[in-house]
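call fold target=alanine transaminase
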Amino acid sequence: DHELGRPTVVSQASRLADVRYDIRGPVLRRARELEAQGHEIIKLNIGNPAPFGLFTPDAVLSHVTASIADSQGYSDARGIAPAREAVARYFGRLGVAGVTPDDVYLGNGVSELIVMALQALLNPGDEVLVPSPDYPLWTGAVNLGGGRAVHYRCAEDLDWNPDVEHVASLVTPKTRALVIINPNNPTGAVYSRATLLALLEVARRHNLLVLADEIYDQILFDGAIHHSAAALAPDLPVLTMGGMSKTYRLAGFRSGWLVVSGPREPIAEYREGLELLANMRMCPNVPAQHAIPAALDGGIDITPLLLPGGRLRDQRDLAWSALTEIPGVDCYKPAGALYLFPRLDPEVHKIVDDQRMCIDLLEQQHLLLTHGTGFNLPSTDHIRVVFLAPVEVLSEAIGRLGEFLSSYRQ
Ligand code: PLP
């Protein structure tokens, strides 16, 4: 039924029907339109440190620059040896036993590795337990892989720790894996050791592969301690993800790692699938891999930014205080990561459509935030604020949010 002279309509694959990534969805598109019209927008929507003047130390860049000439060929599909060795040593320091460079797979950001890990794992209808709220790539990648993301509740009144009884109640014969995002995006929670042990016990009892996204493992406030899932459960197969985007402020390099730990035998066949996918994309970008040994072995330490008087700490504190002063807004004070996830009391603000609210906020106040349902939260009463901007910008932005909320009705 091809008509001469008429272009064929190209539709998208039906498996994308359940795949969403609202952080860069309709709200951001509206922001781009406003910018094209000449409006200046305060953008607190993406955890991208460099545009806010948070740069990687010079030593990391100079090592990458010096390695450029050696970066012209494809590398081993898993990544260059010096970087995989540095990641293996790093995991030794985290207390994860037995990690060798052969257990390390590098990728173009954790994002690529999340998609690969799930593509290699899932059969149609397989279920994966994913936190709610989550970093939405996890839900999207499960659905893209033909599986079904089943959301477990993280409880605001437990400082956003997972509700482990709820997690356990969701396990079915189809459940294959448990996703743990700790420190968490979007809530800023850093899970207690007891919560993690209880979560890992669910995985142990039901033979679930543990997928631990620990990209914010070093971004901790107020003495919070991060426990690596892999260190707490040496008897379980765990895939831990981390990378250069946040702690080392190199999001544009697209450089991350996936580390396999625990008993190797039960997941040997799965790993062949992972290797196949690694081979099919040839290798991750080679120049960006050279940043890894420079950062991990170079004694680069982000704590000065996190201690009292440090920039990230000051920004978190100011943003948290300003948000919680707005009538009808309360907020857990994040112990880690780069985000605040305030709650707009439904008794006061009555938001029915939180994406609509973020578009209205953008149009009225030229402030870009992300709606809570974009993180697979079932209720419409949260928004995410990235606190990477300098305090003056945060103060202006949260002032605008307060003004907006004082008269906003849906
Ligand atoms: N995982 C989490 C929890 C994140 O917040 C992000 C980025 O915001 C990523 C993964 C993706 O990181 P990358 O830049 O390494 O792809």
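return ok
The domain at 15-54+304-407 is CATH 3.90.1150.10 (Aspartate Aminotransferase, domain 1). The pocket of pyridoxal-5'-phosphate is lined by residues 47, 109-111, 135, 181, 185, 213, 215, 243, 245, 251, 256 (CB under 6 Å).
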